[in-house]
Amino acid sequence: MPEHVSAPIVELRGVSKSYAGHTALENFSLEVRGGEFLTLLGPSGSGKTTILRLVAGFDQPQAGQIFIEGRDASALPPYQRNVNTVFQHYALFPHLTVFENVSFGLQQKKAPRADLRQRVKSVLEVVDLPGKAERDPNQLSGGEKQRVALARAVVLEPAVLLLDEPLGALDEKLRRQMQVELKRLHERLKITFIFVTHDQEEALVMADRVAVLNRGRLEQVGPAEEIYARPRTRFVADFMGVENFFEAKLAGKENSAFRFETKSSLSLWASNSGGLAEGSAAILAVRPEALRLAGHPTNPAACNQFEGEVVESHYEGGSERWVIQLATGERLVVRRVNVPETQIEGIRRGSKGLVSWDPARTLVFPQ
Ligand code: ADP
Ligand code: MG
After folding, report:
1. Whole-prediction pTM value?
2. CATH code for 242-366?
3. Which long-range contacts (CB under 8 A, 24 or more apart) does 277-280 make?
4. What is the mean pLDDT of residues 3-14?
5. Which of 162, 194, 218, 269 could crosslink 85 through cysteines, CB 3.0-4.6 Å?
6. Does the structure show a pLDDT above 70 at 54?
């Protein structure tokens, strides 16, 4: 966590918002710390844009409070909140030059002319657009337009920058580049970023902390590594790319590992119990890349080792992916990543294979 991160700068307390009887946010609470890069991650319709609109003051909650810089912001109109928004569709003024687009907000605030020129100039340097000040937006690429939109938002020096899927319209390569640039911009400006995305990879790459949303509720919030490695709910695990799920009951502890049993009588092992009592129902899960597949079954007696038939086999440029059907009915997805061309396993459909994984990689959730 960067050292300039401190007290909460935005706080939502028990916020609820519905539109015509449809709940968009329900009793939602979240603290955003001053200076951090927080990402709101969730599928389409989970309430991400609603949160930004409430923080920006474009909309009012039906219940709960929103604090900005320690003050209850409920009564403040958008222009009195020290917050600015960048949207996915950059909405630049097409008939104004880059300079005029960026200086627009400063002009509204009646900034002195010399000061305005200086601030626009320096912010165009920050977003790497010097020399483009006199262009029209239609003479710019998608990436450049998005930089102008960023410049327009940060030139007003808000305490908090709200970014609603700002990279969504860019192609893959440019998106990756802009992700890195946005992070650098955040480090340089030292202002708080609340960044919205539905893309888990983007969230992990960029954020100090990630807040995962599901149907207007907060599922989990924490450092990116924690959300990835220790998802607390099935929803978060699923969203973060975990693919193998099992319903099972905790059978007991044996030799310092926990044994779970499925309805089909498979024994699955985990190094933690997920805080569950013996006999409780659980969901177990394992990432495809935590599983190993061996073409020649050797020792199916050891824990978390299962023999099955390879029913799908794909080479995905740098990774291999298999689906293994067990005799008990379960299907396991195995993924081998960063495979050098010379070391492709090439285990074929129709062959027998042995799947195994380390009990420490088993995730356990209450059912
Ligand atoms: P996200 O940004 O995560 O895709 P939104 O915050 O836009 O989600 O929407 C959350 C829910 O609220 C969705 O089900 C959406 O249809 C609904 N919603 C959002 N804005 C409005 C609106 N102005 N009128 C009616 N329903 C809305
Ligand atoms: Mg949205």
Report:
1. 0.89
2. 2.40.50.140
3. 277/250, 278/250, 278/251, 278/252, 279/249, 279/250, 280/249, 280/250, 280/366, 280/367
4. 81
5. 162
6. yes
